[in-house]
Amino acid sequence: MICLKTPPLRHDILISDHVGWNSQAPKLTRILAFPTKKNQPLSLKIRGAAGKTGNLMEREKEMEVADRRALAIKRVKEEAAACEDCLRDFSLFTTNARGEATTLFVQSWTPVSVKVRGVVLLLHGLNEHSGRYSDFAKQLNANGFKVIGIDSIGHGGSDGLHAYVDSLDDAVLDVKLVMEKVLAENTGLPCFCFGHSMGAAVLLKAALDPVVETHIRGLVLTSPAIGIKPAHPIFPYQLSAANKKGVVSTRDPEALLAKYSDPLVYTGFVRIRTGYEILRITSYLQRNLRRLRVPFLVLHGSADAVTDPEGSRKLYKEASSTDKSIKLYPELLHDILFEPERKEVAEDIIEWLNKRMQG
To answer: I need a labelling partner for 195 at 20 to 30 A (CA). Which of 215, 244, 326, 348 fits?
Structure first.
């Protein structure tokens, strides 16, 4: 058993347990939290799949990845057959940047009835996948934007244990590598990036790289993980709650049901290493927001109980970007593109993108 102190509102804590697949810990571990009295240490019990060898567990992980990827591909093909206004496609992007071959699932939405004017690189949030943004991507298509969605490592159709993130620095590198390929294949088209929550944090860190800065026209960030609220499931005292009943991330009951019944959305116990990585990147961003010079639009629901709207305010206040905009939506929760007001949010994003295309 290990003990972690209940974190304060600010997330300057360290979680040292490493949950994952390696020679030292060849078992898939599940974390169960047992709340104690207020301000007392949190007791966590770690349960594993005893009696299984690392090789067997690795094979099971590979099978799980194969199932997720097959479903992601099936959905793209089904949409491709039904969509008249866009071309749906996917690719498997393999990189050796981690020292071993890693395959990412990348999907695209390309307009066919209007001229392509620009490209939007899309990165989803924690536990979800790029396919959830298909409706939004089609709205972008209608305005002349080709959309490239990346499934982060451990998410959707990409390699890795579901929702396990060993390092978000790897995710930042993945974005840079895919972006390099996208730019090469779409020469002359302005490139924008869209990111939600964890994906927004990853894109922000990538945009601090001077090389990336020169290649993108702007960032659109929804509910960015710059500040994390205590209700976020990554915090230790939230780990006991599986997400099936879920963090209420939208006031639309149908959208909430669709999210948590989607097999490609992870609804198990939050993985400690993943939580640690999110805390680490938010801490890094808060110390480096002044370095951001890329034009950006940040949007946040004022009632978000997962990521803190104050983080978006801090970004807007401290970033060195001369072209920066912020919009806070009263009463909206975390998944603002799945709220009843999703049309208004999408229109605000498209209006911002269109203005930067004219500039």
So the answer is: 244
